[in-house]
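HUMAN: Now follow token order:
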Amino acid sequence: MLLRALPGLLLTLPATAQNFDFVVDQAQSASNVYADLETTLPGSVIGVYDATTNPGGTRTANGLFGGSGNEVVPMTTVVDNLASFGGGPTGSFGMDLDIPGFSMGIDDLDMDLLGGSAGSMSVDITLIFSTFRTYNPDSLYVGGIPLTIPLGNVNVTAATAQQTGASTAGALWPGTGPNDYDFTATVPVLFSLTADFNGSPISVPPFNLMMPVTGTITLTSTGATISAGFSFADQSFVNDPFPGFQIIDQPVDVPTILPPGFTANLLLNATVGSIDTDIQIDINVVADGTPDCGFTAYCDANLNSTGLPATIAVTGSADVADKDLTFDVGSLPANQFGYFLMSQTQGFIPFFGGSDGNLCLGAPMLRFSKNVLNSGAPGTMTFSPDFDNLPQGTLFTAGSTWNFQLWHRDKGGKSNTTSGISVLFCN
């Protein structure tokens, strides 16, 4: 048989890509968030007074002495949200490694930065205005002196980072250990904060961030581990961030100044003039990864005597417990014999041993020579390996990768092969 003399000739190649699903180890991970969001709202206030429906309500008047009626008072409101907290993050993400290509990518990142704990955010409102008076209660507000109203601290109930697109600039290179690889990438995420103020949820507008990450991945016999740091720092100022957005008749309770001790009930009308942000996010993550299981086709087949390359497809499950794997081969020459080969390494030898096929497996290679198949008149073969009776007592185990290929006879004393199928098993 042509294949008996080949093991010493095989060129072994690493798999082209490895995919892992990582889960964050909360006990070994930490996050720190600082976010100062200052929103400027130019607009006006007016008392809640209405001659018919609320004659006892607060009335506003411009100037030192005030005028008649309920007047619109120009006013700019500045809302300052200051959050500073940390926690033990939880979550998950995926990583695709192309070791020969020295590249990598991160996908499906979804992290809760608090991991079940609570943070804190202070909320202050500063009012900037010209001199005006109120009646019911009677008070004077002297212009030119900003009035800051602390609303106190509120609980941050959620802080999340969710990936919004493909990572970029993913680079990979050998690390200090034999199975270590250092990496860098940039991940686009949507950062969101949710707070609770007196039982009412407050959603801070989410921010789209480009978050750099650096770290080390260590490959193990069962998967991989990662130690990585995600970091983002930005200061920005945006004019008119929400064109067309308006606040209309929003109730605002303002403490009186001269004399103090009372509350003026006003209605705020405003637009969002600008948002000034200062954000620093640091996330240090330790995560354990398991390989994705499934099927991957690789290595092209050459034309056989039908004028076509043989086709191969795999169905069933990559779960070792299911013991359900079937290979269906088509476009074979009629009434020819063949059997499957498998190996844990990939290789490539074109026209091996004088055949017309490409050998896509590396050493050591196992043969299903006790399961010889015949293509029959249709030129097809179907093979389901017996998980309990594999060549040389081999067992498929979760996390292992096996590569399969059919070798078959062809007309004129020739032989050929299909392309390869790589199966990553899981449980």
Remarks:
- The CA atoms of residues 247 and 270 lie 5 Å apart.
- The two ends are 36 Å apart (CA to CA).
- Residues 18-291 form one domain.
- The first strand starts at residue 12 and ends at 13.
